[in-house]
Amino acid sequence: MCGIVGYIGTKKACPILINGLLKLEYRGYDSSGISTMENGYISNMKDKGRVKNLYALDGINDLIGTSGIAHTRWATHGKPSKENSHPHMDNSNTFSVVHNGIIENYQELRNVLEEKGYTFKSSTDTETIPNLIHMYYSKDKNYDEKRFLRAVASTCKDLKGSYAIEVLCKEYPDVVIVARKDSPLVIGTGDNENYIASDIPAILEYTKDFYLLNDGEVVEVYKDKINFYNCNLEKIEKDVKKIEWDATSSEKDGYPDYMLKEIYEQPRSVRETIGARLKNNEVVDFEDIHLTKEYLESVNKIYLVACGTAMHAGLAIKPMFERLCKIPVTVDIASEFRYREPLIDNKTLCIYISQSGETADTIAALKLSKMQGAKTIAISNVIGSSISREADYTIYTHAGPEIAVASTKAYTSQVTLLALLALHFAEILECSDKALIEAIKNELLLLPEKLQQVLENVTEIEEFAKKVYTEHDIFFLGRGNDYAVALEASLKLKEISYIHSDAYAAGELKHGPIALIENGITVVGIITDPVLSPKTVSNIQEVITRGAKTLIVTDQALENGNYDKVIKIPKTHPMISEILTVVPLQLFAYYITKEKGLDVDKPRNLAKSVTVE
Ligand code: M6R
After folding, report:
1. What Cα–Cα distance (Å) separates residue 534 from each residue in 268, 524, 561, 584?
2. Which residues line ligand 1 (CB under 6 A)?
3. What's the mean pLDDT in 582-586?
4. How many other C-beta atoms can be found within 10 angstroms of the C-beta atom of residue 152?
5. 14 catalytic, yes or no?
6. Mean pLDDT on 595-610
7. Alpha-carbon distances of 555 from 313, 414, 415, 445, 522, rounded to whole Å
8. What is the radius of gyration, based on Cα positions, of the chain?
9. What's 317-368 look like in SS3?
10. Rounded to an integer, what distance in angstroms lies between the CA atom of residue 533 and that of residue 538?
């Protein structure tokens, strides 16, 4: 769960590398480092802490090398420290390596290397890689231009687990070698220069032309050419892909934080999600996924599988899928699903939701279901992400780059896209009332405007957040879709504000959680479903009677109920209400966190993509 950047060209590499790392801090930020190819040697500078600490390192401004590799780390093996930071070098200081992923057999490899006399300075799995490369390199007595390449390829064959690596060799100063397996890596190409990164936004300001690497590939990156190989070092060809994202769309655009910017982008991101699928504002178009009526009629079970917020998007849309498509839907946490021997066969349709498309558990669950004969659809925000390359079909959310660790606009786009998919299946299956389908389509089209209205009415949320930011516990209640939003709102609050929070189905209150309600405690109620509203209102009254302070998010005309604050949002179809109700609660978490003076974009212990188990 780290970020990597590389450069080879005619400019000084160091500023380009640090600039790229700053854009990747969302992938990890407990230490960072860079290696550049200087005159006849590899410079290796690294430190614990944020990327900006690199600017303070002695000699960093003297680096003149025009090629280099860089890394921002989120610790897996070995605590955050200078020794454990990347790049790691071999014992002879010939090779320098940065690595993203986990080498599962590193202990075994380390034992072999130690028996041969290699020593280790760090407790990382990564340090085995430069030493293994050195071992193969020293054995190879064919001193041709491919000796470095062969050493890297042989090393990769020994590695079990996941990796994206960049390697420098002081004896081959004109090339950077990279390789990947189960960890993202792209190469951006320019005029007499090439860039490497684990994520596109790191280098998007320099180029829009990208090569996406597949598992097992090894690549020689020179400043003026790129040679692609498979794991057996047979040459392969690759096509350049144009990435249409605007470089500035991954910057802050004047907002104080990425999270706030991303919350405010939701009218636009949801419009993009809809625009890509609702052709001429009326026909739901998913023809790229070729699912026939015959196939959908044979499906007897749909699994929606994901982690964190993406899993909450699945929970929010399950009722709509079941009501419109009349197929049972199970929402599963990917890390549970992959180990619980789920019942899967060729009548199962598995839909995997992942903003990054790199979440290790979600990818593993997908691979498992494919092996057992299910059809798989990936819903991802990142073009060319690992999950998109594993699934039978991929549908992109088109929410644009999401940088803040706390997911906001990806959630609303995921729910919107899943709603469109449910409408599409229902239209193919002809099993739902056409008027209902049309009504939901019309409401979907109005969402961007209604999201804008929600975002214009934030003062009261901010005021309430200022009243409760010192609390130790905050609870969220709702029924139906409102319960799904309660879960997401609670996750948002705890992950960025560090306030303990739980969400309950309001009907469960009396089965235990009400014991936690005491004078002064804060409870947030979400009330949108007209059928369930009276019941949730009664539950909220029960907590008010016991002294709770309440914040209510609703589109209903509630009678005066002694609530401390009511946030009114525009009405939409109850099956998609979560796309609106979640927004004031994202802001609630945001304002509380700001009031506490915490870093909203980079909460402690969390990283944007969880690429390890
Ligand atoms: O990239 P993914 O959608 O697969 O990520 C899944 C979760 O790690 C992610 O949603 C996480 O829960 C966020 N921090 C929530 O804000």
Report:
1. 34, 16, 12, 22
2. 307-310, 354-356, 359, 362, 405-407, 495, 606, 609-610
3. 98
4. 26
5. no
6. 90
7. 20, 22, 19, 18, 21
8. 26
9. HHHHHHHHHCCCEEEEEHHHHCCCCCCCCCCEEEEEEECCCCCHHHHHHHHH
10. 9
**Does the active-site annotation cover 325?**
no
Q: Please report the pLDDT score of residue 109 as a whole number.
A: 96
Residue range 183-195: mean pLDDT, rounded = 94
Beta strand 186-190 with 209-212: parallel, antiparallel or unpaired?
antiparallel
Q: Which tokens go with 33?
A: 């480092």
CA–centroid distance, residue 309 to ligand 1 (Å): 5
Tokens of 270: 């949801």
pLDDT at 383: 75
Please tell me the number of Cα atoms within 13 Å of 263 on its side-chain side. 27
Distance CA 485, CA 503 (A): 9
349: its two tokens: 């349709």
The total number of residues written for the chain in this structure: 613
pLDDT digits (tens, 9 = 90+) for 285-302: 888 888 999 999 999 999
Q: Can you read off the two tokens belonging to residue 462?
A: 């901010």
Residue 559 has pLDDT above 90, yes or no: no
Q: What is the pLDDT of residue 26?
A: 67
Distance separating alpha carbons of residues 562 and 379, to the nearest angstrom:
42
pTM (2 decimals)?
0.76
Secondary structure E strands in 336-430: 348-354, 375-380, 393-396
Q: Whose CA is nearest to atom 10 of ligand 1?
A: 309
**344: helix, strand or coil:** coil
The predicted-structure confidence for 421-445, as pLDDT tens digits, reads as follows 999 999 999 999 999 999 999 999 9
Ligand 1, pocket-test mutation among 312, 359, 383, most atoms within 8 A of CB: 359
The answer to whether 425 and 290 have CB atoms below 8 angstroms apart is no
Residue that the structure tokens 């929010």 belong to? 316
pLDDT in tens, 240-263: 988 877 666 656 767 899 999 999
Report how far ligand 1's centroid is from the alpha carbon of 138 (Å): 43
* Distance in angstroms (rounded) separating the CA atoms of residues 278 and 445: 9
Position 238, amino acid: K
Residue 78 predicted with pLDDT over 80 = no
By alpha-carbon position, which residue is closest to atom 8 of ligand 1? 308
Pocket test for ligand 1, best of 262, 309, 382 (most atoms within 8 A of CB): 309
CA of 373 to the centre of ligand 1 (A): 27
Q: Give how far Cα 109 sits from Cα of 115, 160, 335, 472, 597, Å.
A: 10, 10, 28, 46, 45
DSSP state of 434: H
Mutational test site, ligand 1, from 361, 407, 613, max ligand atoms within 8 Å of CB: 407
pLDDT at 183: 81
Taking each helix axis from N to C terminus, what angle separates 106-115 and 128-139, rounded to the nearest 10 degrees? 50
Q: Which atom of ligand 1 is nearest to the CA of 411?
A: 10
Residue 563 φ/ψ region, left for φ over 0, alpha for ψ in the -120 to 50 degree band, beta for the rest: beta
Give residue 471's pLDDT band: very low, low, confident or very high (50, 70, 90): very high
Is 569 in contact with 587 (CB distance < 8 Å)?
Answer: no
Q: For residues 216 and 229, give the distance between their C-alpha atoms in angstroms, rounded to a whole number.
A: 9
DSSP class of 255: -
**Strand 283-284 to strand 375-380: parallel, antiparallel, or no bridges (unpaired)?**
unpaired
State which ligand 1 atom lies nearest to the alpha carbon of 407. Answer: 16
Q: Are 517 and 565 in contact (CB under 8 A)?
A: no
